[in-house]
Automatic annotation (TrEMBL):
<dbReference type="InterPro" id="IPR000192">
    <property type="entry name" value="Aminotrans_V_dom"/>
</dbReference>
<protein>
    <recommendedName>
        <fullName>cysteine desulfurase</fullName>
        <ecNumber>2.8.1.7</ecNumber>
    </recommendedName>
</protein>
<dbReference type="InterPro" id="IPR015422">
    <property type="entry name" value="PyrdxlP-dep_Trfase_small"/>
</dbReference>
<dbReference type="Pfam" id="PF00266">
    <property type="entry name" value="Aminotran_5"/>
</dbReference>
<dbReference type="InterPro" id="IPR010970">
    <property type="entry name" value="Cys_dSase_SufS"/>
</dbReference>
<feature type="domain" description="Aminotransferase class V">
    <location>
        <begin position="24"/>
        <end position="416"/>
    </location>
</feature>
<keyword id="KW-0808">Transferase</keyword>
<keyword id="KW-0663">Pyridoxal phosphate</keyword>
<dbReference type="GO" id="GO:0031071">
    <property type="term" value="F:cysteine desulfurase activity"/>
</dbReference>
<comment type="similarity">
    <text>Belongs to the class-V pyridoxal-phosphate-dependent aminotransferase family. Csd subfamily.</text>
</comment>
<dbReference type="GO" id="GO:0030170">
    <property type="term" value="F:pyridoxal phosphate binding"/>
</dbReference>
<dbReference type="GO" id="GO:0006534">
    <property type="term" value="P:cysteine metabolic process"/>
</dbReference>
<dbReference type="InterPro" id="IPR015421">
    <property type="entry name" value="PyrdxlP-dep_Trfase_major"/>
</dbReference>
<dbReference type="InterPro" id="IPR015424">
    <property type="entry name" value="PyrdxlP-dep_Trfase"/>
</dbReference>
Length: 429
């Protein structure tokens, strides 16, 4: 059974008070809180095992190396990947940039096409703008419907000009052809919570752009639902450890072995080399080829422990819990919406949405609403959520976002809703 109160007892920070009120942490899409087990694992590493990995024959170095190897095995099992396909990076952003610099920059040519969607986080948008500019490739952007769901089919495209790139927008089907070499899409939107249909996307790619690779931004999926890279049909997937109960500084890029093997390294230096001669250098095999320099050893070990914790809760149970919470929150917010008090963004069906409630209080800037909520101890994010184009699509400058995780309760959602009612009063609306 999924016992939220028992889970909450594992998170020391949830005992905090904010200005005298109990903390109601509704910003897990930005970063999750960490259970004591993860905090202990980090302290244990620094207290008893701290040494660099792969660098020494001494006991501490061997222990640290084994701990990192074990964490890699845990990650691989968690996403059903091969161990040497798991590359440790600092965060999803670094993983996405690794693909941009070490794969796309080498593989794309003038007039090739990269397809992204309007839902992308800036970290899965800006690198593609830069690479397209550099190699003379084109950027195509999948549009969304009024509930923020990707438009998969439909004809008619629009060309946007005015910047350095000529960008074409439309449905996925209308944007795919044999020039497309990469489709880079998020599995779950951090702004609207939209769960994108990766299986259908893969089918369309196979039909219309068979040589295109699929990169999935898993930053908001891997922490919240069972992820199996063999079923996902992707070629690459990036995600961040800090959004899944792990420490900051830990992240993962997964890639298909044959593609990773064909790529040049991203960073050069220690730990990624085969042989170094003054006249030239060879590279180590996977995964070391992409892990130059000292990694965040404690972060990686902490991520392994976070995965143990998530596995003990069960990823399907976590998804069910969050689906129930978002369904509950949407039901409550819709009543307010009918009264004209708030505007809610994103899919209305909990099956199509992660645990992310995005809204605005009518007539109040999202930052002001978030500040009022903070007075009651409620932490929500406000602004553009590193997704300026999707926020603008809904004709607003900013949105407020409450995001849920394993420790979120219905009581906290009730409290949020009650305090949202207070917001207009503060501004005498
Ligand atoms: C969908 C998505 N992609 C990528 C990122 C970037 O993650 P990080 O800042 O950990 O690199 C985020 C962070 O919010 C995200 O939500």
């Amino acid at each position: 059974m999924f016992d939220v109160n028992k889970i909450r007892a594992d998170f020391p920070i949830l005992e905090r008070k904010i200005g005298g009120a109990p903390l109601v942490y509704l910003d897990s899409a930005a970063t999750s809180q960490k259970p004591k087990r993860v905090l202990d694992a980090i302290a244990d590493f620094y207290t008893k095992h701290n040494a660099n990995i792969h660098r020494g024959v001494h006991t501490l170095s061997a222990e640290a190396t084994t701990m990192v190897d074990e964490a890699r095995e845990k990650v691989a099992k968690f996403i059903n990947a091969k161990t040497d396909e798991v590359i440790f990076v600092r965060n999803a952003t670094e993983g996405l940039n690794l693909v941009a610099y070490a794969w796309a920059r080498q593989s794309l040519k003038k007039n090739d096409v990269v397809v992204i969607s309007l839902l992308e986080h800036h970290s899965n948008m800006v690198p593609w703008q830069i690479i397209c500019e550099e190699v003379g490739a084109h950027l195509h952007v999948i549009e969304v419907d009024d509930e923020g769901r990707l438009l998969l089919t439909g004809t008619g495209t629009t060309q946007l000009t005015g910047g350095k790139l000529v960008v074409t927008t439309g449905s996925l089907e209308s944007l795919l052809d044999e020039r497309v070499k990469l489709v880079a899409v998020t599995a779950v939107s951090n702004v609207l919570g939209t769960i994108t249909p990766t299986e259908e996307i893969k089918k369309l790619i196979k039909k219309k752009s068979p040589s295109a690779k699929l990169l999935v931004d898993g930053a908001q999926m891997v922490p919240h639902m069972k992820t199996d890279v063999t079923k996902l049909g992707a070629d690459f997937m990036a995600f961040s450890g800090h959004k899944m109960l792990g420490p900051t500084g830990s992240g993962v890029l997964w890639g298909k072995r044959e593609i990773l093997e064909s790529m040049k390294p991203f960073l050069y230096g220690g730990d990624m080399i085969g042989e170094v001669r003054l006249t030239g250098t060879t590279w180590s095999g996977l995964p070391n080829k992409f892990e130059a320099g000292t990694p965040d050893i404690a972060g990686i070990i902490g991520l392994g422990t976070a995965i143990d914790y998530l596995t003990s809760l069960g990823m399907d149970n976590i998804r069910e819990h969050e689906k129930e919470l978002i369904g509950y929150a949407l039901g409550k917010m819709e009543k307010f919406e009918k009264k004209g008090l708030v505007e809610v963004f994103g899919p209305r069906n909990a099956d199509e949405r992660g645990g992310v409630l995005t809204f605005n209080v009518k007539g109040v800037h999202a930052h002001d609403a978030a500040q009022v909520l903070d007075k009651y101890g409620i932490a929500v994010r406000s602004g553009q959520h590193c997704g300026a184009p999707i926020v603008e699509r809904f004709k607003t400058l900013a949105m407020a976002r409450a995001s849920f995780y394993v420790y979120t309760t219905k009581g906290e959602i009730d409290f949020l809703i009650e305090k949202i009612k207070e917001v207009p009063k503060v501004f005498s609306l």
